[in-house]
Amino acid sequence: MSDAPGMKCLRCQSEMVPLGHETLVTGGSGATAKFFLGQLAEMQEKNWVVNAYRCPNCHHIELFDTGQ
Asked: What are the boundaries of each domain within the chain?
């Protein structure tokens, strides 16, 4: 992950702290569908990898797409 030196928080203008890569899971089904359908319920799930940054002052979080 390339750190963005000087990245400022949009809310309070403090220096953002990089948290690294995070994987978000989108789509899919709820627990009931997974219980009855197993892997078929998870076929629509997608993983989205983002770079996460956090403001140490106001705790604002920024996510940026990694393009993966």
From this structure: 22-65
